[in-house]
Amino acid sequence: MGPVIRTLVLAVALCAAASSAYAHRLHAGLTDISVNATTGELEVVHRLYTHDLHPAIGFNAIDDTELYETREGLLRLGAYAAARFSMRLEGEGPLALRFVGAEPDGEYTFFYFVGDSPEEGQSVIIDNRLLVDFHPSQSNLTNIRLGEDVQSLTQGPDSRAPGRARF
Under 8 Å CB-to-CB from 141, ≥6 apart: which residues? Predict the structure, then answer.
């Protein structure tokens, strides 16, 4: 094999390895819900793959500065997440969650929301539909952390029904 062919084979192999390192077949999101011990506020943090999120919101620019560093971009991100994630007290209305911000971190985008914490013993209904409209195979795991106790709810292609957690 000549040097040109070897170089070409090596270049193709490196490109294939690099692209597979960034690809993933699993469409999954993670949401963490907890009560801040200092403020008593409910904190909701969503983590989504950035390369799934951007096309889902119709963002296709290489430079994402406008999305994460401008008021309009942040409002766009917040509106997307707020329209697809909800919590309501069982037998009552929705819990109002206020968008605090969003930031990219490596291959993920993190969204931050806060709200009033439910009373101890109250049940909440959680509906996590982040990226479901874009990826029908999307699964979302929601962890509710109350001290040492963790309750987990999963919504995926086999079951999109909202879940219940007790505070």
Answer: 28, 29, 30, 31, 152, 153, 154
